[in-house]
Design a protein that fits this description.
Blueprint lengths: L1 E7 L2 H15 L5 E7 L5 H10 L5 E2 L9 H19 L3 E5 L3 H13 L2 E5 L14 H11 L2 E4 L2 H9 L7 E3 L3 H15 L3 H10 L3 E6 L8 H16 L3 E6 L4 H11 L5 E4 L4 H10 L2 E4 L2 H6 L7 E3 L7 H6 L2 E3 L4 H13 L1 H7 L11 H22 L1
Parallel strand pairs: 1-2, 1-4, 2-3, 4-5, 5-6, 6-7, 8-9, 8-11, 9-10, 11-12, 12-13
Helix pairs in contact: 1-2, 1-7, 1-16, 3-4, 4-5, 7-11, 9-10, 9-14
Bound molecules: uridine-diphosphate-N-acetylglucosamine and uridine-5'-diphosphate (UDP).
Uridine-5'-diphosphate binds next to helix 1, helix 11 and helix 12.
Amino acid sequence: MTKNLFIFGTRPEAIKMAPLIKAFQKYPELFDVKICVTAQHREMLDQVLNFFEITADYDLDLMRPDQNLYTLTANIITGMKPVLEAFQPDYVFVHGDTTTTMAGSIASFYSGAKVCHVEAGLRTHNKWSPFPEEINRQITGRICDYHFAPTKTSKQNLLQENIKEDTILVTGNTVIDALHHSVERVIHEPSTLIQGISKTLGNKEVVLVTGHRRENHGDGFIRICEALKEIAIGNKNRIIVYPVHLNPKVQEPVNRILANIENVLLIEPMAYQDFIWMMNRSKIIITDSGGVQEEAPSLGKPVLVMRDTTERPEAVEAGTVVLVGTNKDVIVNETLDLLNNTKRFENMSKLHNPYGDGKACERIVDFITKLEGKRKNTKNIV
Ligand code: UD1
Ligand code: UDP
């Protein structure tokens, strides 16, 4: 029996790891699956665990209000030690680019386990953007034994860093597996919250907004909020829906600048299933989120990305995503153009899926199964 440990801590990691955990759990005769959440996020993580009905075997419960990177990193590494010693995994799976990913992979390396990186190889090659995620990914890539790259471009990035080709598998992004798993259920069984929001929206056009990136904290967020305010005031026939990330550095400017504007609906972070419904209901999406950039093209929704760089160039190349940065005038002008220019809107709304076909998890399970087969055969021969 192969022992697999899954380590994650934030909302997007949970969404993207959930279908992979389920895929391994289908083979209890082959895999002993255990889950360790660092709980770098708390409420936003628990929302996802509830939806996917996943129970953590180990919960480090690390989130603190307005936490900083130094203590979080240290606490994850020391918190992982007893978990790794107790379970002694053969393989540890980490995901993406958060502090949990980076610190979890370091701790797993210390334990001697084989470390597997899901969503490997994304790069901007700019260490300050996204901060600290670009460096988290590079460190994790250096440590990991196996690299599950979502696209050919991400594989290429790894090859350029001299990662051995036979340790890389192009899988597609597991976010699409999660979306496939959820979308029908969500659209046809809207929650009570969604039924209420749906009434408030009536048949108005919706601009959906999310944002949280550290490099946008401070002036960047102020400019973003000023832009949204101008768009809202000039477009009373449209509604901006903004589920606000719980980071106090986001909450403060958003609530100060955007509260009490009649057609701006500021709400708490939505449960994943509600958020999918909301994306589907919206006309366009303005975001700095990585995951939303990957999901929206599958739903045919144009995205304006409030960042100067992206490690997800595929949808930009396909024309469904445009980088607009955090300049107020650029955000306002690009949003209004996209809302009013039917031809541009239609060109950007094409259903397109550069990030996967919903079979990423199957490919990863298959890869590990074959690897284990080979390892066991070699053992027998020896
Ligand atoms: C983190 C990740 C980022 C990822 C994002 C997804 C790092 C450095 N950052 O950023 O890569 O894109 O999550 O959302 O790993 N908070 C709550 N409840 C929650 C979650 C957060 O109250 O459920 C508040 C807390 O005050 C917490 C703060 O948000 O201290 C910041 O959380 P943190 O995980 O450090 O940073 P994020 O901005 O969420
Ligand atoms: N999401 C959610 N509720 C929300 C906003 C986003 O469930 O209110 C989901 C979204 O569908 C996507 C993920 O959270 O899968 C993105 O998370 P986030 O933007 O926090 O992080 P990033 O992807 O930028 O790392």
